[in-house]
């Protein structure tokens, strides 16, 4: 708690809640113990300990569900006020009472994370929360994209009668202090409830924005230890307290705080939260962090194409290109789909031999990584181009390698491809319309390959270079792995014969390439 | 280069110069090549490639000296304007011409890093630089501590006639955008030369401060890749460009930039620059980063004592304490000085046996780490208290362990020690005046131990637990190691017999503890 100019501003630490995005809401109990002991000695008013959620299909840890015993445990560890948060879009209003029952007498404040388009629905939830005896905060997300109509909407008027706190959430972490001040000034005209601010740190403005929010009237601001939180993370508790100590002389035990910070730095070594260039761009252009990082790390899009995509009003379609739409002149019974794994290098000799002897098999490259093995072969070859693939291709293909080659562009990724476009292969580019697989697995080059196979009336698909991932697997690689597995399953369900010709961790039938020679 | 409102603002990247603080100005030439290629494709106007310096006693790499061949190499790698910096306090005005000779025709701008108290002297240097045909920038450091008298000083008037650029350097990295704006407004009243801003990121305000500087009239701002730079580091080039791209539509190839960022992130893994709680506090309270980190990591001061020290007007002296000044009642011929290494644990039995049999030997603890070995012994024991040592002691000593024990406080560290002060050992505290060793090695507990030994008229000093450091040695540990070695050397020069009784990496005579039993 700080008292700038006689006002009381309270501080909320939401490390367990927001940090859970990295640990899947599991925390070592010794760390939790140290966390609470430290919070108890700091001028923090609220501790937000996690979510209350309905059961999910995938695993999430304790601080995502907060069962009764864990609520009790937290309560016993501190006399500070406790808060939890509920994802509004994941619960129905009639489920709220049941969900909050274990929290009664333990939790002081319930916060609802709400998207602007659900504001009306959320107000009914808020009323129910309030009736259960909790303080209620409505945390309205995506502040950088709020439009003028929000402030004059019917729903907005009702907030005064229901809420204890209305929170401005800079979800993209790209706001500037002036923008924050403007929003608070507008809110103060319309709302009489207390205001809060939750900042993200994509462009390193979480602190200055929170200070601007306090100056503009916020009476509750959020922070997390070491900024631990989704993507680029949050305002750092230690930074906020350092500055509030300087500015308002709020007492802080920096040694106890530093010991906690050191413990969380160990976690940071492992999970590596914090900002980076993709997150900065997601902040600067109000793009969802997951989308940006997914496109860069999973779909291999270029950052330039992502930034350029911001200014275009709608996604490009096949008609936006000067290239013809792909329509095959020939069918193939068998196709070899080549992924980016390393095993094709090991079996290069056998693969070449097999393709030479079976020139009626066509090759579809979902990645360019193994391209060199497939030069100077009699087979038709198709290249799935998305993301940065064209730049890789350019380095590996000579203008002489034109024969029987077609480059297929995904419309969504076309903006990238025109970029490094070379005239070397003029006439060989065609645009691939979305088929069954791409509709389901947008922007996946394996889905592109399967849509191409469908167009070619293929009956048999031989995968090579779909090895799976070993060692330190990134979340994006894990997602790719699961997605490819689903694509294989779908292909089987559609009656295609699918198998792997190189060693693979996927659940897929396999044959040895040597058995075919 | 960006053009906000018709003005031209230029950008300067000083990664090699400021990043050199971490690499000792050695950089892998492939990285340098990638760096230049990337800079060539970005809207960066100046590249500051390092220092020009006179020869130093200790090793510094190429980008600290910039010999002619390296200047040429840089020149051949880019057509951007090149800058170098000179530490004004390290050169005499009459040395400037010689120092800059190799730069003529290669370097566009020479910057002088100047402390406010040397402004007058620096103007003469600036004139000489200018006469050699360079653009001259005067980078005035410690902006957060500038006083009003600076702006009205005689020297200040002369700047207009000499300089091309006057730079505001936020050396402590703790300024806020309002403070930056105020400084620029004051400068604009007094100066007609172009203004620049160099921000540090201790409290994560390097970006917002640089934007505030631009708004307030700066026409040249600095940044480094990944913020690589001394201590908490600088404004990140990738962050600045992301925001300038959004704000002013300056064209940026984010993919090429990101590849460079990834290369520097590898370096960051190794050198771990960036802000942390000690750096935040050094920013918030305008304390030199090295002092704060040195006191925390080398002298084991508490952060609280450092922050508290900010408000006290002068360093405490012996007279500031309620304890008597140390004056020994008894002399000792031999003393055992116990450091914090782990070997005493291995030889605990032998050490105890030796001390029991030789109760006329006194023990001086320069660290409390091995204290438990020395309980219940007949020997006189002295404890050197500095930094957080008192807290460690409290956990290890019972009130029963009073006998023949004296706690010696270093006046400089007294502020810390009063903190966790316990009445358990009332009457046993004395203040140690600075002697020969402490005058040379301020705040070192080994120096304290040697000053105590001098007071006791000791002839022979046996060190135990001075093992040296192995494994991943931090810079602070390396400094401690060198400092202890110097203390041993000094002791020998003063005619003391000094040796180690436990295995040690120091250059010091040794005896086996077992040979003495």
Description:
The structure is a homodimer of 517-residue chains. Chain A has 517 residues and is α/β, with parallel strands linked by helices. Chain A has two domains: 4-284, TIM Barrel (Alpha-Beta Barrel), CATH 3.20.20.70; 318-516, no CATH class. Helices cover 40% and strands 14% of the residues of chain A. Chain A is built from 22 helices and 15 strands. Chain A has an eight-stranded parallel β-barrel with strand order 1-2-3-4-5-6-7-8, surrounded by five helices. In chain A, helix 13 packs across helix 14. The longest helix of chain A has 19 residues, at 475-493. Chain A is elongated and about 85 Å long.
Q: Termini distance of chain A?
A: 76 Å
Q: Care to count the β-strands of chain A?
A: 15
Tally of helical segments of chain A: 22
Write down the CATH class of the largest domain in chain A. Answer: Alpha Beta
Average pLDDT level of chain A: 91
Question: What structural class do the secondary elements of chain A suggest?
Answer: alpha/beta
Unreliably modeled segments of chain A: none
Q: What value does the Rg of chain A take, in angstroms?
A: 27 Å
Strand content of chain A: 5-15%
Number of discrete domains of chain A: 2
- What general form of chain A does the structure show? elongated
CATH fold label of the largest domain in chain A: TIM Barrel
What kind of assembly state do the chains in view correspond to? homodimer
Largest interface: A-B, 37 and 38 residues
């Amino acid at each position: 708690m700080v008292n700038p100019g006689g006002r009381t501003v309270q501080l909320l630490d939401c490390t367990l809640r927001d940090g859970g995005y990295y640990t899947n809401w599991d925390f070592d109990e010794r760390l939790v113990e140290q966390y609470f002991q430290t919070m108890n000695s700091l001028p923090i008013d609220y501790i937000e300990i996690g979510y209350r959620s309905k059961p999910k299909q995938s695993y999430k840890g304790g601080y995502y569900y907060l069962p009764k015993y864990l609520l009790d445990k937290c309560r016993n560890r501190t006399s500070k006020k406790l808060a939890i948060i509920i994802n509004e879009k994941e619960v129905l209003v009639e489920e709220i009472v049941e969900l909050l029952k274990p929290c009664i007498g333990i939790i002081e404040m319930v916060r609802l994370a709400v998207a602007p388009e659900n504001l009306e629905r959320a107000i009914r939830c808020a009323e129910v929360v309030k009736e259960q005896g909790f303080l209620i905060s409505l945390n309205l997300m995506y502040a950088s994209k709020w439009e003028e109509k929000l402030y004059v909407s019917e729903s907005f008027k009702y907030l005064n009668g229901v809420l204890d706190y209305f929170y401005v959430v800079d979800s993209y972490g790209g706001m500037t202090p002036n923008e924050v001040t403007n929003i608070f000034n507008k809110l103060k005209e319309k709302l009489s409830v207390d205001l809060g601010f939750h900042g993200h740190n994509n462009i390193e403005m979480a602190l200055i924005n929170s200070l601007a929010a306090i100056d503009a009237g916020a009476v509750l601001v959020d922070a997390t230890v070491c900024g631990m939180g989704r993507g680029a993370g949050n305002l750092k508790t230690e930074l906020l307290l350092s500055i509030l100590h300087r500015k308002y002389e709020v007492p802080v035990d920096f040694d106890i705080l530093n010991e906690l910070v050191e413990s969380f730095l160990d976690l940071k070594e492992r999970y590596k939260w914090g900002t980076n260039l993709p997150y900065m761009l997601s902040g600067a252009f109000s793009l969802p962090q997951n989308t940006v990082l997914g496109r860069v790390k999973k779909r291999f899009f270029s950052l330039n194409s992502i930034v350029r995509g911001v200014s275009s009003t709608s996604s490009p379609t096949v008609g936006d290109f000067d290239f013809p739409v792909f329509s095959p002149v020939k069918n193939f019974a068998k196709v070899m789909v080549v992924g980016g794994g390393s095993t094709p290098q090991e079996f290069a000799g056998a693969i070449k031999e097999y393709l030479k002897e079976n020139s009626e098999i066509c090759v579809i490259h979902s990645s360019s990584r193994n391209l060199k093995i497939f030069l100077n072969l009699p087979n038709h070859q198709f290249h799935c181009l998305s993301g940065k693939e064209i730049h890789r291709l350019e380095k590996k293909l000579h203008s002489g390698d034109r024969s029987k080659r077609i480059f297929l562009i995904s419309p969504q990724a076309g903006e990238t491809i025109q970029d490094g476009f070379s005239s070397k292969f003029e006439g060989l580019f065609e645009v691939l319309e979305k088929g069954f697989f791409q509709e389901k697995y947008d922007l996946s080059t394996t889905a592109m390959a399967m849509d191409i196979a469908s167009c070619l009336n293929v009956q048999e698909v031989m995968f090579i270079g779909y090895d799976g991932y070993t060692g330190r697997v990134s979340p994006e690689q894990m997602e790719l792995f699961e997605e490819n597995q689903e694509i294989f399953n779908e292909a089987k369900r559609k009656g295609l014969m699918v198998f792997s010709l190189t060693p693979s961790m996927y659940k897929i039938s396999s044959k040895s390439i040597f058995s075919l020679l």
